[in-house]
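ok here's UDP-glucose 4-epimerase, seq below lol
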Amino acid sequence: MKKVLIIGATGTIGSAVRETLLNETDNQLTLFARSASRLKAGERETVIAGDVTNDRDLDQAIAGQDVVFVALSGALGRFANKIVAAMDRNDVARLLFITSMGIYDEIPASIGASGNLSHNSMLKSYREAADIVEGSDLNYTVIRPGWFTGGPVDYEITKKGEPFGGHDVSISSIADL
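and the structure came out like this:
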């Protein structure tokens, strides 16, 4: 049994990860969200209301965890800095961080190169977060999903530097990782 913290637990991806972990593991979950009142803790869950930019809130949530899963949007570079620092302070080494496809300009023209960072400035904060995570000493996985769908688990894993083969990914596929 592992202790898993989900930062962004009320969002679409965070909620799907929560459901998958509850149904397929015996892990203890800590659910961290600004709007924690929207969450009802189950038997294996703890809910923490907090701000990802507040060191005290992050330390409270991260202390004692085995894995941190981050599914946020917004100022991701700032959030990544705060989360990585809190993980270092609390000796937690495993991080899974959701960013976006296109942050490495890895989308080939055949499936829509306009989704690459060089054509889409909205991806800058996602790339900044990935750079911060990659520059850390953590055991990390940067998850770069494409466009979300509601389909079954079916995904392709690409490594940094490899071109994407497609762009649609089901929410359940992301949660399955």
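fwiw Helices lie at 12-24, 55-62, 76-89, 124-134, 171-176. kinda neat tbh
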